[in-house]
Design brief:
Shape: globular
Distance between the termini: 15 Å
Number of domains: 1
CATH superfamily: 2,3-Dihydroxybiphenyl 1,2-Dioxygenase, domain 1
Largest sheet: 4 strands, mixed
Strand order of the largest sheet: 1-4-3-2
Number of helices: 2
Number of strands: 8
Order of helices and strands: EHEEEEHEEE
Helix content: 10-25%
Structural class: alpha/beta
């Protein structure tokens, strides 16, 4: 199996689509209630779904970039606000954190070989 996409809830589609386009994603579907984006690298996509009611989303979406610090600096120059500057985490990833206009948590990161092969990796299946 391969994961196709993640869908994030948003409360204002126009504001949300503008946010993600300014981050550098290519919008490939545009409707009043649903939008879909292509990541600049690889084949991953993600989408936005308009929510009529308030919601609570405890999930985080991760976007990987080999030049994390340079990416964050460029986004800050465009006016993006970060809750956490790029920081080396104890699980061997470097991460920066921000939120989209609807409050969805976004983690920009670089993990290198540790993304799939951390020192504590296990391989368990049914």
């Amino acid at each position: 199996m391969n994961m196709n996409q993640v869908t994030l809830p948003v409360i204002n589609m126009e504001e949300a689509t503008d946010f993600y386009r300014r981050m550098g994603f290519l919008q490939i579907v545009d409707t009043p209630h649903y939008a879909r984006f292509e990541c600049p690298e690889g084949e991953a996509t993600f989408s936005l779904s308009l929510q009529a009611n308030q919601y609570s989303n405890g999930a985080a979406i991760y976007f990987e970039n080999t030049e994390l610090d340079k990416l964050v600096l460029g986004l800050k120059k465009k006016g993006f606000k970060f809750d956490q500057e790029p920081m080396d985490m104890n699980y061997l990833w470097r991460e920066a954190v921000l939120h989209d206009p609807s409050g969805n948590k976004i983690k920009l990161f670089w993990a290198g070989e540790n993304r799939l092969n951390p020192p504590w990796r296990v391989e368990q299946s049914a």
